[in-house]
Write a structure and sequence with these properties.
about 240 residues, alpha/beta, 6-stranded mixed sheet, about 30% helix
């Protein structure tokens, strides 16, 4: 059976003008992300890996080239359609959680529903399900300041899952956590990939973190140096 492509880039470039100089952050990136994969983008600081992730999610625009998400070309989308796509098709997880401090756990998780103009009541069952997945059912009324860093990242992951997107993009999801908590978060992401069928693309500095996934994309000096498939060596404890 032919694998389904959910994100595809062709001849993707990202450049910035610094004074009279043009700096190429990404150079001629052509890449396919397949449905159900767990991809890790690795590379040295300044290699362009986070820039690539933001382009894949429509958070930034390329200087030239093509990006398709679920067959839709981002470069020709109107801003309104692009915003809807980011809310419904993609969930984002960031290193520093980006939670709203004075909202409860469940209120933070429900934000994508509110931003999409949907009624919260219709999503109660989904909210309960997600709280169980991330292990925070008993802390649903807590605020972020009452949670550990790992628990806050679980809230961020739950928020990313709320609209049931096909794709989760994670930028250094354990970069702000200790090693034990980081392992717990990586196991949670692996579980979501396997049991929920979500396609995950993460940026990481760590080969250890990459080993929880299925494929490794190495970026160096703005270019893909190589791709390793079927790398997964850490198995989830079921």
């Amino acid at each position: 059976m032919e694998r389904e492509v959910v994100i595809e880039t062709e001849n993707l470039w990202k450049s910035y003008d610094l004074g009279t100089q043009k700096v190429d952050v990404l150079k001629d990136i052509s890449l396919q992300i397949y449905k159900g994969g767990f991809y890790s983008i690795m590379g040295p600081s300044g290699s362009g890996k986070s820039t690539l992730l933001y382009l894949l999610g429509g958070l930034d625009k390329p200087s030239q080239g093509s990006i398709k998400v679920n067959g839709k070309e981002l470069m020709v989308m109107k801003d309104k359609d692009s915003s809807i796509m980011r809310r419904r098709d993609i969930g984002f997880v960031f290193q520093f959680y980006n939670l709203i401090p004075n909202l409860s756990v469940e209120e933070n998780i429900l934000l994508p529903v509110l931003l999409d103009g949907q009624k919260v009541k219709k999503h109660k069952e989904r909210l309960d399900e997600i709280l169980e997945i991330v292990g925070l059912a008993e802390r649903r009324k807590y605020t972020p300041r009452e949670l550990s860093g790992g628990q806050q990242q679980r809230v961020a992951i739950a928020r990313a899952l709320m609209n049931n997107p096909d794709i989760i993009l994670a930028d250094e999801p354990i970069g702000n956590l200790d090693s034990k908590t980081g392992t717990e978060i990586m196991l949670l992401l692996q579980k979501i990939n396997r049991e929920e069928g979500k396609t995950i693309v993460q940026v990481t500095h760590s080969r250890e973190s990459a080993n929880y996934g299925t494929d490794l994309i190495m970026v160096k000096d703005g270019e893909i140096s190589h791709i390793e498939e079927n790398i997964q060596s850490v198995q989830i404890a079921l």
